[in-house]
Design brief:
Length: about 350
């Protein structure tokens, strides 16, 4: 703290990201990265940028990336916004769309970045409890809300909502902006993007970090009504920012266009998840139904913090959250087949 700080800064409690360990040998199942590499076509496209063209500024509108997203989803470029990871897209969305006299509603167990953005942009919020089974109950997102955001599938629970329930919310709350954060949608949930043409209050945010294995490149996007995209663009342009550099623009387009690599790798992750769930259940774990590239699980006889520590001693990193109600759970990213096997061997020895 310093006398030179703006008063707001002393009230902020910044986001604490999952550990990025220095030791390469660790089996890293703590931050939901994709165990398979990005599309080889994306790597080639990025390598082609490593030359004289880096003298030049990138396209400020990221037009080719927006066109690729638009083509995939049957919308127009004007319906698409891109940013430096979906975290940046969300930051612009919080600033542009979510501050109203009534509070922003989001689930009480959810992406822990949301309260951080609320602090940063001075947004009043209400955290709405999950139901008994750790599901989001959209009926609770009532007239008290000035805006709504939730991940689908939710993080860190992995539970997904059916599209019909999301559509019912959009109809019931057509007076407020609703953001669906679909970071993990490709691993088993239904995207709400087809609804944007009918619901001008809906913004859907996705990322290339998970199902396209480009967490290190930092590319995310939002799809919504032109007026919502314009609001985000105004905020972005106020920062005079080029969200995507030339390498990221080239890599993102190629990754989006390589449907085959996308399908193969995501199906492999889904198959590994299903196999992992069955074997963890056989070890006595209670595993929440997951539509994501991670599972959220607890063991009735073993303390989660201790299990995480013992796994770490065996060079396996998983995520443990200290928050009440979920402090007995572990969130475990789906690794490749060998990593899943190593995890199961370690869990079998520890339980
Ligand atoms: N939303 C959710 C729910 C997430 O879990 C994450 C990843 N931590 C993000 C958004 C942000 O991902 P990225 O910035 O890599 O796109």
């Amino acid at each position: 703290m310093s006398q030179f700080w703006s008063p707001l800064v002393s009230t902020l409690s910044p986001y604490v990201p999952g550990e990025q360990p220095k030791i390469a040998k660790l089996i890293k199942l703590n931050t939901n990265e994709n165990p398979y590499g990005p599309s080889p076509r994306a790597i080639t496209a990025m390598q082609a940028q490593l030359g004289d063209s880096l003298r030049l500024y990138p396209n400020a509108e990221s037009s080719t990336v927006r066109q690729a997203v638009a083509a995939m989803h049957g919308v127009s470029e004007a319906n698409v916004f891109v940013g430096n990871g979906s975290d940046e897209v969300l930051a612009h969305a919080f600033a542009a769309l979510l501050k109203h006299p009534r509070p922003l509603y989001f689930p009480d167990i959810s992406y822990s970045f949301y309260p951080v953005y609320c602090g940063l942009f001075d947004i009043a919020f209400k955290q709405v409890p999950l139901d008994e089974g750790f599901g989001i109950r959209l009926a609770d997102y009532d007239e008290g809300a000035g805006a709504i955001i939730f991940p689908n599938p939710n993080a860190p629970t992995g539970r997904a909502l059916p599209l019909a329930e999301i559509e019912a919310l959009l109809q019931a709350r057509s007076d407020v902006p609703v953001i669906v954060d679909e970071a993990y949608v490709d691993f088993g949930a239904e995207s709400a993007i087809p609804l944007v043409v009918r619901y001008p209050n809906l913004l859907v945010v996705q990322t290339l970090s998970k199902s396209r294995s480009l967490a290190g490149l930092r590319v995310g996007f939002a799809v919504g009504d032109v007026a919502l995209i314009e609001a985000l663009t105004r905020v972005k342009d106020s920062f005079n920012s080029y969200p995507l550099d030339r390498i990221a623009q080239a890599g993102a387009v190629a990754a989006l266009e390589d449907r085959e690599w996308f399908e193969q790798t995501r199906q492999r992750i889904i198959a590994s998840r299903e196999a992992l769930v069955v074997r963890m259940q056989a070890l006595g774990f209670e595993v929440l139904p997951s539509a994501a590239n991670f599972v959220f699980a607890r063991h009735p006889q073993h303390d989660a913090a201790q299990l995480a520590a013992k796994l770490r001693e065996r060079a396996i990193l998983v995520r443990h959250f200290r928050s009440p109600r979920i402090d007995q759970f572990l969130r475990i990213t789906i690794g490749d087949e060998a990593q899943c096997e190593a995890l199961l061997q370690a869990l079998a020895a520890l339980t």
